Amino acid sequence: MTANNLNISLESHLHKILIPLVSLLPASASENLQPYISDPPPSTIPYNVLQAISQWSRTPAGQKALRANSLDPQDYNMIAMLAGATTSPEGKFGDYTPPKGPQAIEADRVKERKAITALLNALLSIGGAAFATWWAADKLRWTNEWRVLLSLFVGMIVAISEGVLYVIWDSRQKASKKSQGIRRLQSATHKKDDGETSPADLPDDLTTKVDLTDESANLRRRR
């Protein structure tokens, strides 16, 4: 995105100081400004129109024309004209996602290793159960057709069991991450300084000094 296709929100103070410029600007700049001083004004104005006005206000001819009409050239620099304005208010930008820190990256790597290990264990469990069933059926003198069917049946049961266990494990991981986020939020809320410090937050020696001072003051009052 370049300055040529950027729009700036046309604030009321900006619209007010742009109106007198129509008769002062050069013909091309005045023609470009004309659509944006109407009443009611549009919601945005191109950045390059404001940039041309700012450049003109710094020229000797521009400063002379502005002062001749009791206008301050400083009101037409970019900082003054963009005060309170919003860049591309009509645009819809996505939410900013900050990059992950080293701890978050390492935690993701650990989670990936655990998921890969769980997948390999599941495959070994399925294959081992199917092979063990095949071997046991062979010892029982079953025919090859029944041995294949029994091995597939046992493998399917083990696969379904492993899938259920993985779903339970994944749901617990998500619940744990959610609870950690809630705990961090609660901890941050409790740590906010409200301007008041309770005696429990003071060091033991300071609390003792305060109590002794209060007790001495009470004794003096009684005397």
Automatic annotation (TrEMBL):
Chain intervals for the UniProt region annotation (Disordered): 179-223
Transmembrane segments: 118-137, 149-169
BP GO terms, sorted: vacuolar proton-transporting V-type ATPase complex assembly
Key words of the record: Membrane, Transmembrane, Transmembrane helix
Pfam families, alphabetized: Vma12 (PF11712)
InterPro entries: ATPase_Vma12
Protein name listed in UniProt: Predicted protein
Native organism: Laccaria bicolor (strain S238N-H82 / ATCC MYA-4686) (Bicoloured deceiver)
